[in-house]
Amino acid sequence: MKTNRPKVKVPFEPLDIVVDLISVTLYILMIVYTVINYGDLADTIPTHFNGKGEADGFGDKVYVWILPIIGVFTFVLLFVLNKYPHIHNYMVNITEENALKNYRFSTRIIRFTNLFVAIIFACIQYMMVEQGKGNTTEFGSWFLYSIIGISVILPIFLFIYQRKINK
Description:
The chain is mainly alpha-helical. The chain has one domain (14-165).
């Protein structure tokens, strides 16, 4: 993939560091929580939840490691992708004048996406472990509606903001 976009290094700002640290912390806590509680899990644990937050799919307790593995893998891939903002997709032509602000915006979107995924995975992991231990824990339908709402509203906000920074 060849582009003529300028290669500008986007410096870390405090917000970037905090967001990445929160994401990493969530994954570490998710793994530690799972390790601590793994011995208390039943042989069969919930692996899928319906729209009401009730378990409707079950599997071997080894499946409790899927979310932490996928989450860490996703975090690392997106973290590395953020090192190369010139290869991201943009709705505007990137020039020397607008490169830094568009690259910063794009890397922030990826950072917050990483955080959003970490929060969702941590919540689901918590439910899987708690229900795998025999505790009755449900998030209810608000969890699904919140995810859908954020997933619809956030791109609209991002589209409007990107148009604003490129006027």
